[in-house]
Amino acid sequence: MSKVNQVRCILLSSPYADADDPEIKECFPNGPKRTVGMVEVTLEDGTTGIGEGYLAVFAPLVFKSIVDLCQPYIEGKDAFDIERRVRDLRSICDYWSLQGAARHVISAFEIALQDAKAKSLGIPVYELLGGARDSSIPIYGSGGCCDAKDQFLKELDLLESKGIDLYKIRSVKGDVYRTVWILDEAARRGIRVGVDMCQNLADPPQAVDDVVAFVEAVHTKTDQRMVFIEEAIGPDSPEGFKELRARIDVQVCGGEIITTPKEMIERINNDVYDFVQPDASVIGGIGAVMDIFSAARKKDTAVVVHAWGGAVAIMASYHAAFAGDGKLVEYPMLAFPLGAEMLGDQGHIEAGRLLRPTAPGLGITLSPEIEARYPFDETAVYSCMLNDWGPPPDDSWKQ
Length: 399
Prior knowledge:
By secondary structure, the chain is an alpha/beta fold. The chain has helices at residues 22-27, 60-70, 82-97, 101-121, 125-128, 149-162, 176-187, 208-219, 238-247, 261-269, 286-299, 311-323, 337-343, 368-373, and strands at residues 4-15, 33-43, 48-53, 136-142, 166-170, 192-196, 228-230, 251-254, 275-276, 302-303, 329-332, 349-350, 353-355.
């Protein structure tokens, strides 16, 4: 047993992506800068563990407030009994946040405890979870937040340089010609394309008929086929995803915003998705993602971890993927200097595959120097109230 001596909330902000990216213009009202929220636990012997909750991207001060609320119930407790610590945190938060914000904070605590325990034992986190099945996992490039051809071409160049042959772009239902253009351009380089329709922020979301019409319109204009279509229906409409699966010949996926294993497992058992996308920094931590892998195996449903937060969130999901025998993981392509510094030589990609991490714990580096370089900026928040800058007319993408 090793007790938690101290809990610290860390908020850091870093330059992010390109000011001309549509998502930055739409969702970052104060410019291209993003915040990450982390929990650091320090054990009796001085070992530290770092966890991350995705909530801080959107509401960093809410993240900090919930961490502060939970802190006294973790300090002085056994750090190695991670399941019990998670139950304690749920006792504090579930009444008022069984689903939602508090789950992100619980994720951060759970990931930090996993990191600290593995470091104490001198092993990578995936070894705590039963060990890695493979030495590498195929990875897909996640980007495509573009409204200009030169932006797409830069991302395709990056994919080629890493040997990655699967690319996820963002498209809405009116982006028919734009989607056709990138399908054809990527195919010339031997790269396949999946589409994220971004309905996890849409209110009201689009109808199943709209998605079917989009898929059919794209596929009538090119010989290439979308590999998958992600978050094409609103998150509160599992029946819509099921209907969509029955009406198109493209894999249907989703789940990145689901905050409890119970809900995702219910969707797996109800055949809602072809594959699911849990995020360790959202759904309750690394153990929660392992529960998803276990349930998905029984239904022969694939699990492709979501990786779009900071370095800690990404590595937490990657360790779960290695322990869960994942067959594909996500690589966020948008520039994020803080994340790159914290990852260091971990998260290495070679010939289109993510190499198994080797460092103890998550393999994340966080130093006073890094913290000093990326001070928290309260204005660096992602806004879900989208600014509509109006994309170029879709006809401009006609070849």
